[in-house]
Amino acid sequence: MSSVQKILIVRVSSLGDVVHNMPAIADIRRLHPEAQIDWLVEEGFTDLVDMVEGVRRAIPFSLRRWRKGLFSLANWREIARFRRALAEEKYDLVIDCQGLIKTAWVASWARGKLVGLGNRTDGAGYEWPVRFFYNKRVPIEARTHVVERTRQLVAAALGDPRPEVTDAIRFGIDTRRAAMALSRVGLNLPLPYVVFVHATSRADKQWPEAAWIELGQTLIRRGVSIVLPWGSEAERVTSEKLAKEFGEAAVVPPRLSLPAVVGLIDGASATVGVDTGLVHIAAALKRPTIELYNFSTAWRTGGYWSPNIINLGGANQHPTLQQVKATLASFGLG
């Protein structure tokens, strides 16, 4: 479809899913270098999407905030302005990569042929009524990695050949802008350092606190510092609690913007963390990354595009401290 000039990508959340959506942009640019690509995303993620090479503009979607003020007249006026602004642009294609009623609905506000998922894949969110919004539905095999699901959807929407899993995968994150964002924070980061990502929205995805403590103390004895970023008050409390076990070798930064977080992770010797957005950023950067899984879901969300990414654990075989230590040793940190 070489005539396609303007494309709207709709993937509004969550952080990890936004990251996993990025390779589709590089796919489009490779075969359609003239295309102008906009991306509709939750307002909290626009700074990150703005850093993706090939994205003309990130369009902020404020559903989370709007939901908190459903009876506010000002809110409904803002929604009406958003809807009018979205309809001002004429797109050749609008691609809903999320497959939820909320995303299909807002995607339908844009002007252009609307393409979306034709079915649910294993472990992924999908709401069947979306099919009534779409002009074209793309079926995807049930057992498909989230990155490949989006790549296949976008390729089919554009009439391009189905991408191969073995193709080079590029996330296109501008790490120079990330480094600048981090430098503006003024953190004094002792080198080398390892980022610990202990926080997740689900308690059953967590790794034992005792394991974090022993791992951190082991690294500190070998001259490595620990950095513990956070995104909520509860996460800050946990970061500070762990930091007390590590003493002066630990850094709990202030709450960072997503570009600054990218800079922090890109400068780390390694990132160790549970299945959550910051760990997926580390994998997207192809930095040494250990992803800790308590379920058999690594096949669906774990990184596979770089030898620097190691996925540990699964159902009934949670990642062990010894496995993590051995992997860090393979990165030269053991």
Short description:
With 334 residues, the chain is an alpha/beta fold. It has helices at residues 15-21, 23-31, 46-49, 63-67, 73-87, 101-107, 146-158, 175-183, 209-221, 233-246, 258-266, 277-284, 298-301, 321-330; strands at residues 6-10, 36-42, 55-61, 90-96, 111-117, 136-138, 193-197, 225-227, 250-251, 270-274, 289-292, 309-312.
Which runs of at least 5 residues are low in confidence (pLDDT < 50)?
A: none
Oligomerization? single chain
Q: Rounded to an integer, what's the Rg over CA atoms? A: 21 Å
Q: So, the CATH homologous superfamily of the largest domain?
A: Glycogen Phosphorylase B
What's the CATH topology label of the largest domain? Rossmann fold
N-end to C-end Cα span = 51 Å
Strand content: 15-25%
Mean pLDDT, rounded to whole units?
Answer: 95
Strand order within the widest beta sheet = 3-2-1-4-5-6
Form type: globular
Query: How many domain regions?
Result: 2
- How many β-strand stretches? 12
Structural class: alpha/beta
Q: How many helical stretches? A: 14
Largest sheet: 6 strands, parallel
Architecture of the largest domain, according to CATH? 3-Layer(aba) Sandwich
CATH class of the largest domain: Alpha Beta
Helical fraction equals 25-40%
Spell the H/E element sequence. EHHEHEHHEHEEHHEHEHEHEHEHEH
